[in-house]
Amino acid sequence: MANNAAKNPGPKGPAFTDRRPNASLDKRQHNKGIKELRRAIDERQLLLYYQPKVNSRDGRIVGLEALIRWNHPRRGLIAPGQFVPLLEESGLILEVGSWVLKQAATDFLAWTRRGLAPLRIAVNVSPSQLKHENFINELERALRIDKVGHAGIDIEITEGVVVDDIENCIRKLTAARELGVRVAIDDFGTGYSSLRYLARLPIDSLKIDTSFVRMVTESPNDLAIVSAIIVLAHGLDLDVVAEGVETVEQCKFLRLLRCDQMQGFLFSKPVSKDAIEQMLKSGANTTAQAHVTSDSSSSRTISEPEYRQRREAAEKTWALK
Fold first, then answer.
1. pTM
2. Which residue segment(s) compose the domain that 267 sits in?
């Protein structure tokens, strides 16, 4: 949930909380924001948008990430960066986080019943949620929402959650995986996790932070970091997902680096449940496939020695600047 705020800062405009250093926060405005959020929960103004994840080899949509939005009666659709921090501060994040899990599970089962491809849905889990003693019970209730089926829900956590309490984190993630849930470390490379801890964690994938992906075609330093993360992940038998892919050049480079999946505006912005359903019905994979395979011949013929040569040349060029 907290990651929603980082990934979706939203348009400029008045936010419900100000986290700048030494900001003088109007207590009345703060309390008003909490009351509005309480009303939003009670009146079901919160909703989920979904962003597709695509297979880097062929462009097929292979999963979705659930991202929360607030359909405010006066201000319209509000991005999470403007209200998730207040959810965290007020403690409402636990109630909203539970709702997100259940709603994602409900949508997954609804699509499955309609005969659509059952794409697994990744849900961001906040530090407060994971630390809460009832987290596994909440997760299990969401997964068992249907007596016959089993919701295909995965969870994403940040590195910071792991560092805070590694043993408790391992215990809960192990229990989550026993329920059939896959676990991803989100925004990898921006936190302070130990590589020794990483090897112990019961996880399935790493998500490369947008900040590295954005510069992968321009900065040899970011290229080296992304390449190292992918090699590390594959060495630990983990999948790699690149977030924030916006250009064809980034897409081609990530394919060259053997990244497993990609996610970003190049393929689709976060869209409503109905839009995802139409996308699945109409076979919108073709758009992503066109981007991924637009230079497929050259990507497939590049050998490992040639890749290393390109990277070394880029690093030398950067060093001379």
1. 0.83
2. 46-75+91-320
**CA atoms of 94 and 126, how far apart (whole Å):** 8
Count of domains for the chain: 1
From the number of C-beta atoms within 10 Å of its C-beta (0-12, 13-18, 19+), residue 263 rates as buried
The burial class, CB within 10 Å (0-12 / 13-18 / 19+), for 197 is: middle
Cβ neighbours, 10 Å, residue 273: 19
More confident residue, 193 or 226: 226
Instruction: Using alpha carbons only, give the angle 222, 156, 94 rounded to the nearest 5 degrees.
Output: 135
Band (pLDDT 50/70/90 cuts) for residue 310 is low
Query: What does DSSP say about strands 76-78 and 205-208: parallel, antiparallel, or unpaired?
Result: unpaired
Residues 182-210: tens digit of each pLDDT: 999 998 877 666 677 888 899 999 999 99
Residue-wise burial string across 107-121, b where 16 or more C-beta atoms lie within 10 A, e elsewhere: bbbebbeeeeeebbb
Cβ(234)–Cβ(240) below 8 Å: yes
CA–CA gap between residue 158 and residue 135 (Å, rounded)? 16
Is 213 a member of any domain? yes
152 part of a folded domain? yes
CATH code of residue 71: 3.20.20.450
In this structure, is residue 81 part of a structural domain? no
Among 118, 182, 109, residue whose Cα is nearest residue 142? 109
Q: What tens digit of pLDDT does each residue of 38-66 get?
A: 999 999 999 999 999 999 999 999 999 99
Amino acid at 107: D
User: Residue 117, CB half-sphere, CA atoms under 13 Å: how many?
Assistant: 17
What DSSP state is assigned to residue 246? -
C-alpha 198/C-alpha 314 separation (Å) is: 29
Give the chain's end-to-end CA distance (angstroms, integer). Answer: 40
